[in-house]
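User:
I study polymers; will you set down one protein's sequence and backbone structure tokens?

Assistant:
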Amino acid sequence: MFINPRQSGQRELTISLYSCNLKNNFIVYIYGLKTVISSVGQYDMGVCYGNKEIEYSEGIQITVPLKEFEEDIHLPLSSTATQGTLPVTVDRQPPSLYRLYANLIFKDDKYFIVFVKVKYQLRCYIINGRCFNMKFPFELPSASSAECKILCTCRQQQIEGSIWVASTVSHSHVIRFKTFLSLVDTQRLYDLAIAFGTRKVYPNMRPIQYFYRNKSVEYFQIILNSNYLNGEMRPYLKSNGGEQGSVVNGRLPGLFFSTYIDTTTNLPNPCSHYGPIRLYLKSLVMFNPQCNLYFADFFCHYKRHHVTIILVPKLSTHNNFCRQYLTELNIFHNPYLFLRVECNGAFTVLANMDVTVDVFYTETINVKRALELQYGFIEATPTIGRGFAPPSGTPKNPSCKICNLVT
């Protein structure tokens, strides 16, 4: 039940229900909504809510206490069994555009009631039609966890004054996502990484000759033996691993490489979490003065902390995206990955070993050519854990007090 409170601070609502055709005990959920008109669109903002379990009788008059919204408020029907699940997807486009849509068309017009909960606020808007595909008519705060629920209803009936009853024919599951980090948020995350790294007076920078990447046997067989790929290892869109609100998730294509080496042996970890075949590529082939670096992420998976650095050639089409949404790093002077100019004018790549520096390279790499010209090689490595990365990526540890933003 949705109401427009007659006055701010209304503490309770008394209603009479005589013609609802209810035969069993039920729970009444009330949401007080206030219409808001913004520069983006019109919607309703939740101002109060309440619920009460009701015993069935012929004539029902109930008083439901109302209270202000709290963080643990439930979305409508979020705890009920699904009635013909409504398949809904959220599409996120940086910097702050969010759109809900369903690949489903009804025979008749329906009312789609969309609820969005973020922080302590509940917002609502209605779409009328046979399907829906609409951006949110309001701005959402950055770097925040959001929940959505869509009710598909029909046959509205006015039963008393401004009280209306609509039958819900289907509804979605609760859809959870995190809003994008703004450029300011990304800078704040970078500051957290810097604060973590300054625990030591001097960062543990080590020269690295190779970037390396582990994948399955089948992955490399397809690259090297397929006439379609012809030896090329092609970028694909970054998963939702790490910081869930990162603008690069699902938007920027690339390939992950590791820089970490054991500081006692100066060799990479002999085992891998990501596959039994390891490709090594000379670091200076990928990282040189014709490239730009961008800080993208700082996270952990309950153990070691990681920093994600985007490595993109200056002439790449992805440079504008990175420059617009990420923190750019000086390629000759930064705490994580840089070029050192030697006395003879040659370059050496140095990487920080106090954290795991993950390099996300945005361009296609011809593995076959690298092997033929010997600036790359392949070796087998034992696997540990799952032995592969989940396609959706592994989210960061949400309880870590070191690498999570306070919003």
Remarks:
- The chain has a mean pLDDT of 87.
- Residues 2-178 form one domain.
- The two ends are 31 Å apart (CA to CA).
- The longest strand covers residues 145-160.
